[in-house]
Design a protein that fits this description.
Length: 261
């Protein structure tokens, strides 16, 4: 299958670790020039060093707090200056704090909104002029909670669904410009975020993290957590030239965990 990605430029958000890092690495392997970004310059430098000799694409980085509009603008300008026109946008962000409804005040809801929804909106707005030139791809990374809410993650459950509404609306609006927009939702993928949530749940229940992992695996038909690379391969297909007709979709990568149709 011809992925037709060589020489393209991608901005991959929250890409110094976890799913963002895995996506960036897969794109570099396919010859994409990738701009990495996160708040930690130390992690970004280390990630760049790991990637720049592992694939055909070039790698650069620029630290950015994606809750800050001015820093987003600077990130997009840096990407254009480094690589030229942006062809692919991977919107991604770390999850908000866990907890139930009564735990959170207005500031918590505002912070989660700015990190997990408004940041996506702002980045798309800045990148859109590039994508409209010759078409492009937008992936908005969400969570399996878009199909089945996760207990104890009410902030994530709320704003991840907002991502779906955004993606679906944009898919229709931007189709005349040959811009494909999709949401990709991870289930239990073996990342630091998943490990943190397992640890938090273990502490709440007074059991070991291993107990939580085993219980989770029993709810996954494939019987294991996914690997970040498996998630990244799905995203890579969707942003590639091999995908010419999938847009407005919300795709779960969860090993069959979510039972909703």
């Amino acid at each position: 299958m011809n992925m037709n990605l060589n020489g393209k430029t991608a901005l991959v958000v929250a890409s110094s670790q976890g799913l963002g890092k895995a996506i960036a690495a897969e794109l570099v392997e396919e010859g994409v020039n990738v701009m990495l970004t996160s708040r930690s310059e130390e992690k970004l430098k280390r990630t760049k060093d790991e990637m720049e000799h592992s694939g055909k694409g070039k790698v650069s980085y620029f630290p950015c707090d994606i809750t800050n509009r001015e820093e987003i603008n600077a990130l997009v300008q840096k990407t254009r200056k480094e690589f030229g026109k942006i062809d692919i946008l991977i919107n991604n962000a770390g999850g908000p704090p866990g907890g139930n409804f009564e735990k959170f005040e207005d500031a918590d809801w505002q912070n989660a909104f700015e990190l997990n929804l408004l940041s996506y909106i702002r980045i798309i707005r800045e990148v859109l002029p590039d994508l409209k030139k010759d078409g492009g791809r937008i992936i908005n990374v969400a969570s399996s909670s878009i199909k089945q809410p996760i207990p104890g993650l009410i902030l994530s459950n709320t704003f991840r669904l907002g991502i779906v509404g955004l993606s679906k609306s944009l898919a229709e609006e931007l189709a005349p410009h040959n811009i494909l927009v999709n949401t990709v939702a991870p289930g239990r993928i073996a990342t630091d975020r998943t490990a943190f949530l397992d640890k938090m749940k273990a502490e709440q229940k007074g059991v070991t993290t291993e107990d939580i992992e085993e219980a989770s695996k029993k709810n996954i038909p494939l019987g294991r957590y996914g690997h970040p690379e498996e998630f990244a391969k799905v995203v890579t297909f969707l942003v590639s030239g091999a995908n010419t007709y999938v847009t407005g979709s919300s795709l779960l990568v969860d090993g069959g965990m979510v039972k909703a149709i």
